[in-house]
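pasting for ref
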Amino acid sequence: MYQDFSFSAFLMRFPDDTSCLEEIKKIRFPDGIFCDVCKRETQYYRLKNRNAYSCKFCRHQIYPLANTIFEKTTTPLRIWFYAFFLMTHMKTDISIKKLQQELGVTYKTAWRINHAIGMLLKQNNGDLLMDALEKVHKWTFFNKLEIKLVQKHE
């Protein structure tokens, strides 16, 4: 899927946070979004200036970032995706200082991103959600990093 994924290909594929959010939505809900209120698969539309989608019929909202490492982050998703890109394309581990310079963030933010991605890689073989037992979706990021997303049904 991402054969020889270069930096220019990264920029074209993920030009902004909206494209990153759409990618996460596609991964978490590959067969469409099931509305808990309507009790069927419906169309959802992105809410302006929010990382949420609303049901076309009943306005029920879903948040694709919920229960992921991206939940409650104020760091733009594109920076997170770029960090994934860097960490999967470096032949050796990237230092936090180098990550800070590349991402253009504070040292504290670079440390948090590095720590979260590192924990993701070590815990539960890359599972983002450890306690859910429902649908498991695998995502291979840049043909090097496999991430599993588990979709919870409440």
